[in-house]
Amino acid sequence: MAPRVRERGVAESTNGRERGARATATGAPRPSPGYNLALRMTLAPFDAILRARSGSLAETPYPVLLLALARREQGAVLALRRNQLEKTIVFDAGAPVDCRSNIATETLGRFLVQQGKLAEQDHHLAFSEATSRGVPLGEVLTARKLLAPTELYRALQQNLGRKLLEPFSWKSGTWDISYDVPPSGSALRVKVPQLLVTGIMKVEPQESADEAAAVARGKYLALAGEPLFPLDDLRLSADQQKVIDAARRGSALDAIGGIDEDDLHRIVYALLLLGIVRVTDEPVYTPPVFVLDHPFASAEPFASAEPFATAEPEPPRMAFVPPPPPRVDPALAEEVMAAYLGYRRKDAFDMLAVEETDSPVTFIKAFLEMAEKFRPARFEGDDSMRDKAQEVFLAAARAYSELADPERREALIKRRNILREQEAAIAKGGAAALIDPEQLYANGRAMLAAGKLREALSSFEMAAECDAQNGTYAAEAAWVRFQLRSTPAITALKLLKNAMRIDPGSAVAYLYAGRVQAILGNRLEAQAYVSRAASLMPKDDARLLEALRAIR
Questions:
Q1: How far lies 129's CA from each of 53, 122, 126, in Å?
Q2: Which ranges constitute the DSSP H helices of 217-355?
Q3: pLDDT digit string, tens, across residues 68-127
Q4: For the chain, how are helix, strand and coil distributed in percent, rounded to 5?
Q5: How far apart are CA 360 and CA 368, in angstroms?
């Protein structure tokens, strides 16, 4: 069988983490509020940022903070504050694993209700039970069979990703880094390179991307020899791959066609930030590296003792097709997922489901049952499930080891008593108030109906700050600014187009774009936008009827 040859770009063949470690800071970073691209590209500020431990988001933007912490590959807590909004992101080995905020819609229950995965009444009942028992909401949802553990795992991943995307829209505020990382019960993990690409493509303000891409105007793109992260860490869209291919050929930025200009700027910004592409004055062609992908490949794969000798053809052989691996029982897979989601927050007693007063014989019995149930060999053929079962298996072994030692068991009982007292004090003090963007939006609509435009704008802007991925909040704020004449028509259209990009299902974004185009006298464009809005909203909506009258 002839060896297969695969193509790999030079950028993919380098180890960015090893080479990037040589780029250290020489002084405190002072990037401009407009995102000093040259500073980000040199990698110089990373170590200085981590030494500074605090600063302003206007000077050190959120994407740069993510890169700095990911490059360090250690545990940390990043606290972000913007006006009344707060987010606390926990990192493990440079990867975000948890994010807590004071935004009501970012709680798991509200997220599930918004996604249509949980009824409002079921949410209230489950939340009340979780609060009274002092357990996570997800545990109650799976116990009540409102969600399967695998569904819960996907929902937790999606909700964490959504919370991490929000700060890409924050252009002011403060940040603090702590290396005193509290224990986290999260079973999640987010890859920073993919998070950066997604955040820049979806949430980052367009002006930031335009400014970053401006450095490449009239110049050429090339693949960088030392990217911050391997290109294999990214799942690229067709347009993103097109820009990578153009950089490999040494194409000029202005020569890349077939991509919307705003999207092109976002792609270039993300690739520059990750150090995957660079800007050159002259075209630079990066030849592909061909790697022999064959188990018997050597340094001289085509060498032979007799260069021109011909071998006798071998007789055909029957190919051996191995039997497919046994399929993991779905019920067992759900049990593994449920245990995997919860084991990090459990102590030894909870892990083995035993009481403090139980005997050592009970501990042994509980451990043996768990060891048999989560034995990794039972999950051959499903690598993901086997890895999760192995983590639970090892956690059970650690729990038994702790309970089998009388001194360690007694120390654990004392810690549990202290935690009970702390939880009682927190419950007595009451929970911190959450900011609810849905209520802010409702208040803005009421103010708008009453003709109080400035009050409505304040509510809409605050709602948009809480949920930058909601196109409707952004569109309402842009429309009110236009009505107050604080935003010109061209700028308002740009903001409304950005709201459409964030949320293609936002009817009011298309509706208000049609209103602005009608005011500008662009009848055909206005009709197109309003027609799109009409397909997304009720036909009797007063705003739609008003827009149709304005066009006529």
A1: 39, 11, 5
A2: 238-249, 261-273, 330-342, 348-352
A3: 999 888 899 999 999 899 999 999 999 999 999 999 999 999 999 999 999 999 999 999
A4: 55, 10, 35
A5: 12
What separation in angstroms does the CA of 235 have from each of 94, 194, 204, 359? Answer: 19, 7, 19, 52
Report which residue type is found at 389: A
Distance (Å, whole) CA 57 – CA 383 = 40
Residue 57's identity, in one-letter code, is L
How many CB atoms within 10 Å of residue 528?
A: 15
- Is 380:326 a contact under the CB 8 Å cutoff? yes
Cα–Cα distance, 438 to 114 (Å, whole number): 11
SS3 readout for 375-415: CHHHHCCCHHHHHHHHHHHHHHHHHHHHHHCHHHHHHHHHH
- Predicted confidence band of residue 300 (pLDDT cuts 50, 70, 90): very low
User: 492 and 516 in contact (C-beta within 8 Å)?
Assistant: yes
CA distances from 19 to 92, 228, 229, 411 (A): 22, 8, 10, 45
Q: What pLDDT, on the 0 to 100 scale, is given for residue 289? A: 60
pLDDT digits (tens, 9 = 90+) for 347-397: 999 999 999 999 999 999 999 999 999 999 888 888 889 999 999 999 999
Q: How many whole angstroms separate alpha carbon 281 and alpha carbon 264? A: 19
CA distance 544 to 538: 8
3-state secondary structure of 56: strand
The DSSP element (H or E) to which 290 belongs, if any, is strand 289-293
Average pLDDT score over residue span 258-275: 93
The beta strand positions in 156-199, using DSSP E, are 174-178
The amino acid occupying position 126 is A
